[in-house]
Design goal:
There is one protein chain. This protein is mainly alpha-helical. The chain contains 8 helices and no strands. The protein has helices at about 15-30, 30-60, 65-75, 80-90, 100-105, 110-130, 135-150, 155-175. α2 runs antiparallel to α3 and α6 (about 110-130) packs antiparallel against α7 (about 135-150).
C-alpha cells in the first residue's frame, strides 16, 4: 500500500489508518486532507466515546458509571493535570510531568481507531459471553483482528485480556462450555 497524501511512497508501518482513508478517497472522492484531519478523526473519536459508554454500561449496568468512565477516557490521565496546572499557574509546556494524551489521541495517529475498534471487539466478546450467539464471537474476532491492522502493538493487551478473561470465567463458573 502507498501513503495516500504522498505519491510513490510505500507504507512501512501499520497500514489500517491509511487504508481506511484510501477507501474513502477512492470510492467517495473526498479530499485526503479533509479525511485525515477532520472526518476520520471525528468519526473514530465519536466511535470511541460511544462504544466505551456502551461497554461500561453493559459491564456495570449503571449509566452513571458509564458516564464517569467515558469522562475519564476523555479527560483522565493528564486532563486533570492540565486543569491543575492551569489553576495553579504552572507552566505546562516543556514540563515532563505534563502528558495530556487527549492531544495525541485526536492527532493523526493510528492509536485512536485501534482503541475504538479494540473496545468494539471487547464489547462483542462480552455480548457473546452473555448471549452465547456465535455471531457475536465472529464479529468480535473480526474487530479484534482489524484493530491489529491499525496498531500492531495491541496484540499484547488483546491476548492478555482474553487469557485473563478466560481464566477468570473458568474459575468462577467451573464450566468449560465457552471453549466447546
Amino acid at each position: 500500500p502507498m501513503v495516500p497524501a504522498v505519491g510513490d511512497l510505500a507504507l512501512s508501518y501499520h497500514h489500517g489508518m491509511d487504508l481506511f482513508v484510501s477507501l474513502f478517497y477512492r470510492y467517495f472522492g473526498l479530499n485526503v486532507f479533509d479525511l485525515n484531519h477532520r472526518l476520520i478523526i471525528t468519526f473514530f473519536f465519536s466511535l470511541l466515546v460511544f462504544i466505551f459508554f456502551i461497554f461500561i454500561r453493559e459491564l456495570t449496568s449503571s449509566e452513571k458509571a458509564a458516564l464517569l468512565g467515558t469522562f475519564l477516557i476523555i479527560f483522565g490521565s493528564g486532563g486533570f493535570a492540565y486543569l491543575a496546572s492551569w489553576i495553579l499557574g504552572v507552566q505546562h509546556w516543556g514540563n515532563v510531568f505534563f502528558t495530556f494524551y487527549f492531544f495525541n489521541i485526536t492527532n493523526i495517529n493510528s492509536f485512536l481507531p485501534a482503541l475504538s475498534i479494540l473496545f468494539a471487539g471487547f464489547y462483542c466478546l462480552f455480548k457473546y459471553i452473555k448471549q452465547q450467539k456465535p455471531g457475536w464471537m465472529i464479529l468480535s474476532g473480526l474487530l479484534l483482528a482489524l484493530s491489529l491492522e491499525f496498531k500492531t502493538f495491541f496484540i499484547g493487551p488483546v491476548i492478555g485480556a482474553l487469557f485473563l478473561a478466560g481464566v477468570i470465567y473458568f474459575i468462577t463458573s467451573r464450566k468449560g462450555h465457552i471453549l466447546k
